[in-house]
Here is the input.
Amino acid sequence: MTFHKDPNQKFYKIKIDNIEVDMAALWPGQEHFFNKIHANPILIEGFKFANLEVVKEWKMEMVKKYNRLKDKEYLEKINSFQS
Here is the structure.
């Protein structure tokens, strides 16, 4: 898939136990967040996942930049989980 029809921002969507997971290479303009994700992953059963604090920061930036409902909903879920 592409993000906002931008051919430079491609990603794959897969489902694991009904949980949607996005996988992507580095997107132009998002290097800061990808570098933070890669620098501080959470390791679960040999697989690396993005740190929730970094995801939260990134989602906040996406809401600010694109005002997407999906990102707002993720922020609510993250905040609920953390409290």
About this structure: Strands lie at 2-3, 6-16, 19-24, 42-44, 47-49. The chain has a mean pLDDT of 84. The radius of gyration is 13 Å. The chain has three helices and five strands.
